[in-house]
Amino acid sequence: MSEYQIHKIAVSPEEDGISLQELLRARGISRRLLILLKHIENGITCGGRIVRSIDAVKAGMEIELKIPTERGGAEPNPRLIVPKAYEDEDIIVYCKPAGMPVHESCGHRGDTLSNAFGADHPGIPFRAVNRLDRDTSGLCIAAKNKRSANIPRESVEKVYYAVCEGVIEEPFRIEAPIARERESAIRRVVRADGKFAATNIRPLQNNGQHTLLEIHLETGRTHQIRVHLSHAGYPLAGDDLYGGSREFIKRQALHCGKITFIHPVSREKISVTADIPEDIMQLVNKCGGYL
């Protein structure tokens, strides 16, 4: 027998008169889930009556969705302790440590963020809303159900902190297309036939050898920060894939320190922060400066 969870959506005055389909899409219900709900007995109701997706909704109505409870998920690993920066019944924001992949792969089984999520929420599929490279630390959003997995990508804003080689004294913007390097499955390069990419760089402090940066992305290409800074002549410290030295730090000095998004259920704007990790904070000090 299938098990269900009842999710309730209250129609706001601003949503008065729009179609149910428009309401559900705005509240993070994917087209795929909407089709599933239509095929479930009493899948979408209001006051006990079935509501069609083409029907107009009125302010004050409370729509009930009968969503099947999911089964599955990664193998739980309770030995993995990953700090949580935010959590509610729909969303969890982890502060992922450097060295931990987000998803399992051939070389990583049982040691990923998905396995930590499996320990926190056994049997629930892991859905990462944003992803970080294995050696990039910081904030990573995971959804606890189908509904909350549909956070609009355009609503997610991230702020990164990084330490690059060389001295940068003025803010600047890098606009350069990024493509996969033809001889590599991993490495990316700036190339004319690549996809548009833009990165905004703001220096915070330098010690004559390295610069602490605050970085805002306009696009979200794979390895974008690493590729753009290397292309500009300022590779990340520790990023030997893109020309950085591992003398002072053994991984790329990159951290997602702030993330802001529109909650898929409450529609509230959520902002979460995570402190810069100790290895990055100590990097400038090791080179003779002080943060």
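the 2nd protein, sequnce then structure:
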Amino acid sequence: MNVHHLELFYYVAKHGGVSAAARQIPYGIQQPAISAQILQLEDSLGLTLFQRRPFQLSAEGQMLFEHIEPFFNGLGSLEQRLRGGAETRLRIATPEIVQREYLPELLSRMRKRVPQFHFTLMNGRQAEIEARLLAQEADLGLSLITDKPTVGMNTRELQRMTMVLLVPEKSRIKCMADVLGMDRIGLPLITLGSREALPRVFGDELRTRGVDWLPTLELGGLDLVAKYVAQGFGIGLSMHVPRMKLPAGIREVPLDDFPMIPFCALWMGRLTPLGESFLEESRTLAVELFG
């Protein structure tokens, strides 16, 4: 018998069906794949392990479940014992801006809360983070969310981010209407790269309003966007990040009537107590920063 097939059967039997199992398995696998592998298990045994609709274990399925249940139920506690106690390590995937502006304070708080807290960091945008979670290379991700998450991916919104324009202090631009009211927007626009969430949401909103304003400069970070604005190279697209200090001579123009971008935690399966503690600290810090 294939051990992976037994693991899938364990989740199906425990949660009462294939669709319920797909929501609980702590890695990415779709219902058709689960069904196909359960059929392979049944074929190898020459038995039907459960009735599909309504779900009910057969006598042989019940016998198999009772035999494997203690093993799979005990894996979590075994992992903790092998690690020397409670789980203290978290693998976190985030974009660069989150690593720079948000994580240092958050990780410091986690070390005060869990003295033996250890972590590894991986860089990536939403799609890359989801791929790492599905491959079980990461335990939890923090990211701006612009695309519908993968089926089965858990998300928890921590905050909504406001887009802003960065303009010279002496600029006459007081709100986005001052820009949109121009016959032709000739101002150079400085943004992050086109793959980033911020310029994508901004560009989508402009298109819904029938406005063309294409980026002139695409840079690698919000700090660079601010520096180029300070040097007089154009108008910057950024987000309001409370602790990010702007260069002298520029100010923010909030885009209050533009969509806000959700900042969320992402994970697969069921979070460990350590993961829940991390999310609790994440939410607390987000509220302190943004209100």
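The chain has twelve helices and twelve strands. The first strand starts at residue 50 and ends at 51.
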